[in-house]
UniProtKB/TrEMBL annotation:
Spans traversing the lipid bilayer: 216-236
GO biological process per UniProt: endoplasmic reticulum membrane organization; endoplasmic reticulum-plasma membrane tethering
Protein's name according to its UniProt entry: MSP domain-containing protein
Coiled coil feature spans: 174-208
InterPro entries with a match to the protein in the record: Ig-like_fold, MSP_dom, PapD-like_sf, VAP
PANTHER family (alphabetical): VESICLE-ASSOCIATED MEMBRANE PROTEIN-ASSOCIATED PROTEIN, VESICLE-ASSOCIATED PROTEIN 1-2-RELATED
Keywords for the protein's UniProt record, in alphabetical order: Coiled coil, Membrane, Transmembrane, Transmembrane helix
Polar residues: compositionally biased ranges: 141-155
Cross-referenced Pfam families: Motile_Sperm
Family: Belongs to the VAMP-associated protein (VAP) (TC 9.B.17) family.
Region (Disordered): 125-155
MSP domain sequence ranges: 6-126
Superkingdom of the source species: Eukaryota
Length: 239
């Protein structure tokens, strides 16, 4: 923070998260801790590259004002990501109740005997923020163990491997259980089919046995009738 007698400026360095073909903005906060109206004006060494809103204004007593600096989209990255652009913020005491319309260039002219404060601001390019990595949250009950993270943000490899095995093994056991259940189900179906086949064969044997018995009685009956007929014939010849 730059603390002048008229305005306090924060930050002292304009940091732009540099990305190609993208407009990037950062902000300045001007704080007036005096009892006077303070006019300000922002200048830059590369006005075609930057847009400043507002580039002039008045900060009322004991108040603050935000200034937005926007860098136009760049087609090429600078060498070594270094920037030589600079900004100059000038401030001067304005008349009580002054507004932006009352600001003139003569107010910031030192040669005219005006009290003018100047603050130079540097420009720096910084890497763009990285999006957070998605983390799959485990269920509250029965959740798999997670690998611990060390103080420097690195994941412990051995604990990560153990966590991976602990997560995979229940899946393998579940697969074996499903295979065993399927095998037992097939064996049960086969046993039922064999039992039904045996019952059918037993019933067939019973029917054949009954037919055999019925056929035997009829044959004996025929034999007896035949023998009786022969006996009757023999007796009739005798008589």
């Amino acid at each position: 923070m730059s603390t002048g007698e008229l305005l306090s400026i924060e930050p002292q360095e304009l940091q732009f998260p540099f990305e190609l073909r993208k407009q990037i903005s950062c902000s300045l906060q001007l704080s007036n801790k005096t009892d006077d109206y303070v006019a300000f004006k922002v200048k830059t060494t590369n006005p075609k590259k930057y847009c400043v809103r507002p580039n002039t204004g008045v900060v009322m007593p004991r108040s603050t004002c935000d200034v937005i600096v926007t860098m136009q989209a760049q087609r090429e990255a600078p060498q070594d990501m270094q920037c030589k652009d600079k900004f100059l913020l000038q401030s001067a005491i304005a008349s009580p109740g002054a507004t932006t319309k009352d600001i003139t260039s003569d107010m910031f002219n030192k040669e005219a005997g005006n009290r003018v404060e100047e603050c130079k601001l540097r420009v720096a390019y910084v890497p763009p923020p990285q999006p957070p990595s998605p983390v799959r949250e485990g269920s509250e009950e029965g959740s798999s163990p997670r690998a611990s993270i060390s103080d420097n943000g690195n994941i412990n490899a051995s604990e990560f491997s153990a966590a991976s095995r602990a997560y995979v093994e229940p899946q393998d056991n579940s697969s074996e259980a499903r295979a065993l259940i399927s095998k037992l189900t097939e064996e049960k179906k086969s046993a039922i089919q064999q039992n039904n086949k045996l019952q059918q064969e037993l019933e067939l044997l019973r029917r054949e046995s009954n037919r055999s018995r019925g056929g035997g009685v009829s044959f004996i009956y025929v034999i007896l009738v035949g023998l009786l007929g022969l006996l009757m014939g023999y007796l009739m010849k005798k008589t």
